[in-house]
Structure formats: C-alpha cells, structure tokens
C-alpha cells in the first residue's frame, strides 16, 4: 500500500489543496492520501484558529467525491502542538509501511524551513517528503536529496486570503468547494 500524509491547518481547506492532492495521487500512484488537520501548528501558535470541529467538517465535506482521499482526526484528538514527527511515527506504525511507500506532502513554503522542524532526520528515515510548488517557490529554486517534487499547477489561493475575503463580504465560490462555502456562511466563520 502506498500512502501519503497531507497535514495542515486547513482554515479553510481550498481548491488548491485539493488540486495538489489529486496531483500527488496521480504522480505517486497512491492508494490513499490522508488529510491531517492539525490541532495547533508549531508554526502558528500565535494565531487564532477556527475550532477543530469546523475545520474537520470542512475537510470531510470537501473530499467526499475523491475515493483516494481520507481524513484523520489523530492530531486533533491528541491535542496540543502537532509535531510532524509524532504523526509520521503514528501513521508508519498504524499502516506498517516502509519509507518507500510512505509519503508526506508539503508546500514549497514549508520545504524552505524543513531543517528547523522537530527531528527532520527521523522524518526522512520514516517517509519520503514530497514538495508541491507554491507561487514564488518553484522546484527550480529548491533542490535537496530525499525529496520528490510534484508537477503541480501554481494556484495563487491561500486560506488567509479566503478568510479576509469573507470578512470583506467578497465572494469565495471560485476558491473553495461549494460545501465548504456553505459551512463557512452557515456558521458565520471568519467574520
């Protein structure tokens, strides 16, 4: 079995997340891609984050029509700061999968800081990191051993922009799945 961890805050999940995940499934021949919403990202401890339940619900509804996608609430149930090494160890044990069949999808922005993550060497022993380019950060600018670079479209969509657009009463229909927009508006998120 070939699996891939795709962690993030997902506040909210948006169309670029889904497109990148589809590219990973196709290019890595994955059996399953696991979205892992974080409880508290070590890189975002100073930010207000939407409730775990709302973020989990948005991911669950966004991925319903994708058979290879799943979502785990492991980090949310564990609570506290979500260190990638703990999640990678958990999934590696749960799926009993080797590094060659276990991938971790990150954005180009996270790739730049990877060496500052908790126990990066151990992460590299347990899984193969996969980097999706982001606007301003392409695979041509970054090269490192042990990393795979996906061929993904550069989509300039960010969760921060979506939250700001909601606050400003601007449309978000082209940026998130319809089901996610409905949850945002129904629960008055980001106002």
What shape does the CA trace take? globular
**How far is the N terminus from the C terminus?**
42 Å
Strand order of the largest sheet: 3-2-1-4-5-6
Gyration radius, rounded = 16 Å
What structural category characterises the helix and strand content? Answer: alpha/beta
Count the strands? 6
Helix content: 25-40%
Multimer state: single chain
Overall pLDDT metric: 91
% residues in beta strands: 5-15%
Order of helices and strands: EHEHEHHEHHEEHH
Low-pLDDT ranges? none
TL;DR?
The protein is an alpha/beta fold. The chain has helices at residues 15-28, 52-62, 74-78, 84-95, 108-112, 120-126, 159-167, 178-186; strands at 3-8, 32-37, 69-71, 102-107, 128-132, 148-149. Strand 2, helix 2 (52-62) and strand 3 (69-71) form a beta-alpha-beta unit.
Task: Provide a descriptive summary of the structure in words.
This protein is an alpha/beta fold and 191 residues long. It is 38% helix and 15% strand. It contains eight helices and six strands, in the order βαβαβααβααββαα. The protein has a six-stranded parallel β-sheet, with helices on both faces. Strand 1 (3-8), helix 1 (15-28) and strand 2 form a beta-alpha-beta unit. Helix 2 packs antiparallel against helix 8 (178-186) and helix 4 packs parallel to helix 6. The chain starts with a strand and ends in a 5-residue tail after the last helix. The mean pLDDT is 91.
């Amino acid at each position: 079995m070939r699996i891939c961890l795709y962690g993030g805050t997902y506040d909210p999940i948006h169309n670029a997340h889904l497109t990148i995940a589809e590219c990973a499934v196709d290019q890595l021949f994955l059996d399953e891609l696991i979205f892992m919403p974080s409880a508290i990202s070590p890189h975002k401890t100073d930010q207000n984050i939407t409730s775990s339940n709302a973020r989990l619900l948005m991911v669950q509804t966004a991925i319903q029509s994708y058979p290879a996608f799943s979502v785990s609430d492991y980090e949310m149930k564990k609570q506290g700061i979500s260190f990638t090494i703990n999640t990678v160890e958990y999934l590696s044990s749960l799926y009993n999968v080797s590094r060659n069949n276990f991938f971790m999808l990150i954005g180009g922005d996270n790739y730049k800081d990877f060496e500052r993550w908790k126990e990066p060497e151990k992460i590299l022993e347990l899984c193969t990191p996969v980097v999706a380019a982001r606007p301003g950060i392409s695979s041509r600018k970054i090269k490192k051993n042990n990393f795979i670079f996906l061929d993904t479209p550069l989509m300039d969509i960010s969760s921060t922009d979506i939250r700001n657009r909601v606050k400003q009463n601007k449309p978000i229909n082209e940026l998130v799945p319809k089901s996610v927009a409905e949850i945002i508006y129904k629960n008055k998120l980001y106002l």
